[in-house]
Amino acid sequence: MRHFLDFEKPLAELEGKIEELRRTTDAGGIDVAEEVGRLSDKAEKLLSATYAKLTPWQKTQVARHPDRPKCLDYVRALIEDFTPLAGDRAFADDAAVVGGMGRFRGRAVMVLGTEKGTDTESRVRHNFGMARPEGYRKARRLMELAGRFGLPVLSFVDTAGAFPGIEAEARGRAEAIARSIEACLDAPVPMVSTIIGEGGSGGAIALAAADRVLMLEHSIYSVISPEGCASILWRDAAQASTAADALKLTAQDLSRLALIDAVVAEPLGGAHRDAAAAIAAVGDKVAECLEPLLALDSGTLRARRREKFLEMGRNGVA
């Protein structure tokens, strides 16, 4: 059963009528093809009009859509011979961060990502994509491994942020995130990161301080969630939509600010309506961005990556 967001209610009613008419046709043999066609055209126009003028808060809802393809969906579709690697070699394995080696369009790569899960059981197992310190230490370990074997790194980010629990603080969450960012910046191999849903705070940057940072059209990337920002500034999480406007968290805002490198178009109505097409578009853009990076030596890669992020600070947009 398709899940509709609050602002999609008129569309939900239209599609409900279309489905009801189709069931009528199946049950009684009544020909309602003309009416179904008319309503389908109307629904497509409404869908197009709705998604052409989404507010930042509505984009946030789309980025969090439960049916949106997750990290492992991208891995299964884009990476051949994927071999998962587990553990930080110090404390435990964190299922919120997935990683391993595989082949992307024939080339050996290291893959990293934050996985939210798709149902109740998997969401609990992956801790809703909120990594603990050991998750970021695993990411760092795998990036260093990629450097030793000359494997480009591809990361797929979808997290509300790092896990905020007391045990995460006790095990050095801030240090683990900082070390993971350091590993991104110091990697001697090309790194391409894609924000496929939410890119929340340091929990996202830890896997996205890359040579090329891509964002899906309706994904978000910000220093804090709109709800968290609203709770701090207005002491009222209900002000989340106002905070979303102020945070400049959409792909379009971040592209204008030169904080990301490219926006990947989504199918009409969002990636959740045609996951295969969205994943294929990401694969094509990742391949396009990766190809020129492969020709650069490690020293040049590091120098360009350093300059890229320093330039953001000099421009005062970070």
Features of this protein?
alpha/beta, about 50% helix, eight-stranded mixed sheet, about 325 residues, about 15% strand
Structure description:
The chain is 51% helix and 16% strand. The longest helix has 20 residues. Strand 5, helix 9 and strand 6 form a beta-alpha-beta unit. Strands 1, 2, 3, 4, 5, 6, 7 and 8 form an eight-stranded mixed beta sheet that branches. The mean pLDDT is 92. The protein has 318 residues and is of the alpha/beta class.
Gist of the model:
The protein has 318 residues and is an alpha/beta fold.
Please give the share of residues in helix. Answer: 40-55%
Average predicted confidence as pLDDT? 92
Quantity of strands, as a count: 8
- Give start-end ranges of low-pLDDT stretches: none
Q: C-alpha Rg, in Å? A: 21 Å
List the helices and strands and how they pair.
Layout lengths: L8 H20 L4 H20 L3 H8 L7 H8 E6 L12 E8 L2 E8 L5 H6 L7 H17 L3 E7 L6 H5 L2 H14 L4 E10 H5 L6 E5 L3 E3 L3 H8 L6 H8 L3 H6 L5 E3 L10 H19 L4 H18 L3
Parallel strand pairs: 3-4, 4-5, 5-6, 5-7, 6-8
Antiparallel strand pairs: 1-2, 2-3
Helix pairs in contact: 1-2, 3-11, 4-13, 6-8, 10-11
